[in-house]
Each structure stands twice: as C-alpha cells, then as structure tokens.
Amino acid sequence: MLAYIVRRLALMVPTVIGIMLVSFAVVQFAPGGPVERVIAELTGQGTSATARISGGGGDFGGMPQSGPAGDPVSSKYRGAQGLDPAFIQQLEKQFGFDRPAHERFLKMMWDYARFDFGRSYFRDISVIDLIAEKMPVSISLGLWMTLITYTISIPLGIAKAVRDGSRFDMWTSAIIIVGYAIPSFLFAVLLIVLFAGGSFFSWFPLRGLTSDNWDQLSLGAKILDYFWHLALPITAMVLGAFATMALLTKNSFLDEIRKQYVVTARMKGLSERAVLYRHVFRNAMLIIIAGFPGAFVAAFFSGSLLIETIFSLDGLGLLGFESVLNRDYPVVFANLYIFSLVGLVVNLISDLTYTWVDPRIDFDTRDV
Hints:
This protein is an all-alpha fold and 368 residues long. Helix content is 68%, strand content 0%. The radius of gyration is 26 Å and the shape is globular.
C-alpha cells in the first residue's frame, strides 16, 4: 500500500502541471485581459464586475498623455490608441506581460510549488489572504451540505431498498424526482420568498454568514446565529443534492440484496438487520464512497456559486467567478491550483477508504 501511495503522490506533480499548462494556454488566447481592463477603466469604456483598481493594480495617476498615433505598442490593445506607449509598457510590466509566455508560466509554477500566489491584480491584498478571507463561507456551505446530504441520503436509500415497491418507496421517489428536477437556486428563491422577508414570513436573514453584532454575542448565541444564517442556503443546496445520492444508495443496495451470498446468510438464520449491516452494507457502500470526493470538492469550491450570489455569501465560488470576469489571473490560477491539489488528494483518500471498507481490494497489485 505504501508503494501505491508513493506512486499516486508522484503522479500528482505532472497532473497538476498539465492542468495548469492547459489553463494557462487557454488564457493566452482569451479576449481581453488585465491591461485591457485598466485601459477601459481609464478611458471610460467599461467597468469591472466587482473589483476596484487599487493597490495590486498600481496607481497610475489618472489619464496618461497621448502618444504617437499608430504606435505598435498601443495598437496591441483595443481602446489604447492615442495613449502614451510608455504608459502601456508600464502596465505590461506591472502585470508581468513584458516577458514571454513560457517564462511567465515557469515562474508561476515555481512560485506555486512554494505556495507563493502573489498579490491580486485589482485588490490591495495577497491572493492567499484573499482566499483565506473567503474560506469560512465555502467551508461552511461545502462541509454542512455534504454531511447533511449523506446523513439523509444513505438511510433513505437503504429504507427504499428494503421497502422496494412499497407505498413508502413510491412516495419518497416522487419527492426525490421533484428535488432532482428543480435546481437548487430555484429552491433558494422560493425559500427567500417564503421565509426571508419576501412575501410571507421574515424568519431568517438574507445576507452574510453572521450578524453585525457577532462579536458581542456569547458562545451559545454565536453558534445559534451561525446556523440561523446557514439554514436557508444549506436547505436549498441539500434539497437539490440528496436526490441523486438517495437513488444511488437504493440501487446499490438492491444490487447487493439480490446476490447469492445474501440468500445464504438468510438461510443460516441471520436476522435481516445483521444481513443488511454486517454483509450488504460494506459492499453496497463502495459506490457511495466513490462519489464522495467529487461531491465534496465541487460543493466546496464551485457548487455554491449561485447560492452564494442569491444569499450574498462571499465565498470561493463567487470569488473565482468574479476573478474570471475581472481578469484577475493570480486569483484565478491560485483557485485552480488549490482546487486541483485538493481534488487529487481527496481522490487518493477515497481509494484508501476502499481498502478499509473492503479489505479484499488491493491496489498494490494494480497499475496506477
């Protein structure tokens, strides 16, 4: 097993490099960029989605003087005609675009290997501090959604498998189909209308992870306030997520219940509970464990983007989306790098969990 872990860890390096290389190459051909964005801001041709030009982007002291018409430096960028070429070159140097693409990529990967993500282009803060600032929201949404989804889906799926074809199975299937068909953001809007001061009740807050007087609350009041703010967004996310997991659990248990070893266990006189949880459970849970890494990582980094927007929660999903719109490449690539590393590590943990659930699985005998 140790050799397998070492091989998997070694393969993470070229995998991450490949992901970053493809993404970096795509960005080189994408229209627009941080230089164009600054030019658009200064010339009044456009505004950013969210961020401000400050600190990280530099203070350029207002509009530059006009340069010679048709200058090749200015003509590289849309809207830069008439601007001083020296100013354009200063922008390129500020954002690192004065060097060839391959040099920028190699420097980025060397810095990222040391977890040095630099500073945001348009926010006066380092990227790692910016990510750490948004992390509590993403951790709260991703962790609680995953835990609650699995807590509901696994017992519900087992109950449906045991009562396959019963009235309970049909009614819960109808609820699951509704939960699967309606997107979570529509549930979020409905919850706001009903319970957050929309048209009916005003029982829950509409924005933020905590109240304004958080620092003045006692420990118990802080815990209640925290879950009070999370109630609606987590409910909206869980309603849309538990359906697939519940059906997956049911089908997995049905496949195992119909196998010969289950019939043999029953013939030996074991109780239904012993058959279900001592024999069927471990085998049926393998496919559930396989889906855990993707569900957790997606909910943690990107799955909550619309929920964060609707409930005004400033997390990593919203940060990544805004950074792409604003061409804040240090934040974009840092999010991608961390997302890739976490995904690879969680997949390795998932494989190791396989061997704990079913000791018959031996990854040492397989090629990675």
